[in-house]
Each structure stands twice: as C-alpha cells, then as structure tokens.
Design brief:
The complex is a heterodimer of chains A (314) and B (277).
Chain A lengths: L2 H11 L2 H4 L3 H36 L1 E2 L9 E2 L3 H7 L2 H34 L4 H13 L2 H11 L6 H6 L9 H28 L4 H9 L4 H29 L3 H6 L9 H10 L4 H26 L13
Antiparallel strand pairs in A: 1-2
Helix pairs in contact in A: 3-14, 4-14, 5-9, 5-11, 6-9, 9-11, 10-11, 11-14, 13-14
Chain B lengths: L1 H33 L19 H8 L1 H34 L5 H13 L3 H14 L5 H24 L5 H8 L4 H30 L2 H5 L9 H7 L10 H36 L1
The chains are: A mainly alpha (314), B mainly alpha (277).
Chain lengths: 314, 277
Amino acid sequence: MSVQEKVRIPAQRTPKKKVALSEGKKQERKLGWLLCAPAAIVMVAVTAYPIIYSVWLSLQRYDLKFPEDREFIGLTNYVTVLSNNYWWTAFGVTALITVISVTVELILGMGLALIMHKTLVGRGLVRTSALIPYGIVTVVAAFSWRYAWTPGTGYLANLVSPDGAPLTERASALAIIIFAEIWKTTPFMALLLMAGLALVPDDLLKAASMDGASWWQRFTKVMLPVMKPAILVALLFRTLDAFRIFDNIYVLSAGANETSSVSMIAYNNLMKGLNLGIGSTMSVLIFLTVAIIAFIFVKLFGTAAPGSDDGERR
Amino acid sequence: MAATTTSDKVKWGLLDAIVVVFALVPVLWIVSLSFKTTPTLTDGNFIPRDWTWDNYKLIFQTDQFVRALINSIGIALISTLIAVLLGTMAAYAISRLDFPGKKALVGVSLLIAMFPQVSLVSPLFNIERNTGLFDTWPGLILPYITFALPLAIYTLSAFFKQIPWDLEKAAKMDGASQGEAFRKVIAPLAAPGVFTTAILVFIFCWNDFLFAISLTSTERSRTVPVALSFFTGASQFEDPTGAISAAAVVITIPIILFVLFFQRRIVAGLTSGAVKG
C-alpha cells in the first residue's frame, strides 16, 4: 500500500489540507506508521491469517489419523457439528456459565469496587488482597478448589457434603466451576468499575444527599449514570472472557458429566480426536458467536463502547 | 460525631476483613497442602498437622518441574520484553502523533482483546506443525505477544497521555540535545508506565494455559501450568497432590511479590486503560 493512498482519506474530509501537507506533517505520518507497523503486523499475522486458514480447514474432511482421506467437502462439517448434541450441550453450558458468572460478578464487583474506593481503613490491604485472585495462575486456583472439594482431602467437601463427591455430579460440578470463575475474576470487574467510580463527582453526591436523597437513590440516580461507560466496558470484556472458559473446567471436571464448554470440546476434538476439520469448524463457530456478542454490545450501547473515541484524542 | 466515626470504621473494617478472607483462603489452602506430609495429606485439615518441605524437595529434583519452570520464566520474559517494546512504539505514536490509520490500529487491538483464543488453537496447531514452530519457545512466544499487545498498547497510551511532553521542548530550549531531552526528561517520566505494563503483560503470559497445552508436547517447551496438569507422582500409585500443590505455590510466588510491592501501580495500570479508552 503506497503512502499516497493512505493520505487521501483524511485529506478528503478536510479539503483545506489537501494541497499542502507540510514536510513536518508528512514526517509525522511516516513516523506514526513506522512505529505502529511492527505491532500491527504481528497482531494481524497471528490472528487474521490463522482464522482465514481455519475457515479453509473447516471446509475439508481432515482427520490427522487418516491424512490421505483429506478432501474438500463444503459445509458438511458445519452440518455435522450443528446437528450434534455434544455441541449444543457444550454451548448451553458455556452460555449458562457466562450469564450466571457475569451477573454475580457485576453485583459482587460493584460491592468490591465501593469497598476499595471508599473504605476508611486498610485501603492498601484490601486492594492488595483483591489483586491476588486477579494475578494468580488460573490453573493454580483451580487446583486449590479441586482439592478443597475432593472428598477426604478437602475442607469444603467434608464440611458441605460429607458423603458425596461434588465434582462428579453435573449440577454441583457446574456450580463449583462457576464459583471458581467468580472468585478469580470479580477483582478485575471491580477494578474496571472502580475506574468509573472515581469519575463520580463528590459535589454531586453531597448535593443529592442534602436534597434528601437516600443512599439507594444516590447510587441509582447519580452514581450509576456516571458509571455507565465503565460498567459497559467491564460487562463486554467479562462476557467475552467468560465465554472462552477453559482452564477452570479442564482442571475441575475435565469436562466429564456434560460440563464441557465450547472451548473444551474444540480442544478435545483437536488433541484427542485429532480431527482438524471438525476442530476448525468449531473454532470458526466460536469466533462467529463471539463476534455476534461483541456486535450486539456495540450496537446496543453505541458510542459508549471502548475505543470508539480513543483515536480522536489529540 | 466521634462515635459514628468509630462505628463506621468498624463497619468498613468488617467488610475489609470479608474481602481479605475471601481472597486469601484458596491461596492459603494450597500452601497448606504443599506443606503436608503424605499420610496427613488426605485428612481434610485446613492447617497441616505435620509440616514438611519434602514436596518442594521432590519437585526440584524432577526434570519435569525444573525444565517447565525454566520454560515458563524464559517464555514469559521474552514475550514481555518484545510485547512492551512493540507496544511502547505503537502507544507513543497513538498518543503523540497524528496519522491516518490510528483509529484502525486501536480498533484492531480492541478486536484482538476480545478474540476467542480457542479459535486459533486448531489453525495454529497445524501451521506450527508445518513450520517446525510446534513445541518450541517461539511457538508460544508469538501468540503471547499477539494477545499481550492490546493490553500493552491500551495501558501505555493511557500513561503516555498523562506525560507533560512540553517539558521536552523546554529542556531543548535550555540547551539540551534531542537525545538528552529524551533521556533525562521523558524517559524517567515514561518509565513507571512502561514498568507497570511489563508487570501486567508478564502476569498474562505467566497465566496462560490453553496455548501452552495445545502448542507443546514435551518438556522442551512445556510451561509450569501445563506440567502441573501432567504430574503423576513419584510412582504410578502415588498421589501427586503434594507435588502439584508445591509447584503451584512456587509459580504463585512471583505474583504475590508483584502484588505486594506494586499494588498501586497495578491498580493504576488496570484502571487507567479502562476509563480513558
């Protein structure tokens, strides 16, 4: 792509500049592209190319156990996956985990954000402790929960259900997976919300308070509207992140008893089934689902979406 | 008046305590397991009755763990270094320069931050098998850099926008050269942001499980989170709980240190990107 092609776009918007781009301005553009190029190239090369390749693979019968049977079969893989119960069970499980964990995280996260923002004592201590679930390796936390719920070994298993094995039953295993997910990611949600909380002007709260607004009224009428962008960013990021859930399930239940997420079955198809065609089909379907979720968020909330005004600064 | 303050303090103190306990219990539990002796491992006690270092001695004697630890540290450090370098360049351009395509770059980073990583597992697996990158350090470093870059770019641009760049001009007017102005004025101001970003990126790479388990197959490049899930114990019949716990504690230590020493920076880093974006 030549430099001139790129220059034309803004030039059309502001015709005044079209004639004389000063030497300094040209230099600035060149430098800007030069500095951004490595990051842009890496990001696009490692994501865009494989996802396109994945679409191509998904249109083929391609089982690594029978590589000579490789052939182009159109949309057959999609029909196979979409008419399969495993896929829809995993899809349902993923959706359930996403909806419940993100809802609970939003409520707990708001509480934690208020505590971290307002507490009169031990602010540093609370913030430090809250960062531990955020920073800890997910697999480590998952093992901690797994051993806590293993009969005999674990303090929680012995306490809550002395004569059952909660991780081997579907409902309780899912509950534990969701709980582990909530524990790990509530602090992240809280930090994003705290950023929004910091934008609420104290004067406004004081004024509302003097006008006789109750705490709840101040929260819903003053704080929430100001925090709306932060809440949306937090919700968007956490929803898409929860939809990718893998580590917790892998360690806690290994996907047994129909507790697999879509990531889990895509992985299993590749690693245990060695079926690249079906695995890629699932990859593409997950990608499309995430794209749709993101699209709905952005459409619903318009300009409140992150990044929408970032580029316009300066 | 004094009474309300005290009761307020008690109320907040209580809430604080709940948060601290909630956050720490799982960590203390895995620490406790790692210090239990084999016979007491399954007694279900939260605090060990018998303390021992055996689990730690055991894992540091195995190649399986030591290699994985070296892989984890090496891969995370190299990825962090490259991601922060590329991120700094891009963030500098985004926050200081005016050029078309800036918005597109910010948009692309945002898309990648939301990208479902599992979608890349199948194609990357095949691409890396064909190019010889499978089960090597670069094979993991590449996807780590890619997914760390959006985080780095967002956090760094937020930091860079707060730097008073006019100081650079002022320094030059006072007779400093371009190099000096950058070294003595701008670099010290930018360093904290770059450092904070490095911590966040390192935590991200250190944490990954999905890529590490899909794109490696031997000790050559397997990282600790993956090695953990393959631990079997000294013999086939031995329960690996103690060893897994000890290894889990070892890879949690850097995280605890970061959080203890750089709490303020990490909070600032995570919150700045979110609001400014």
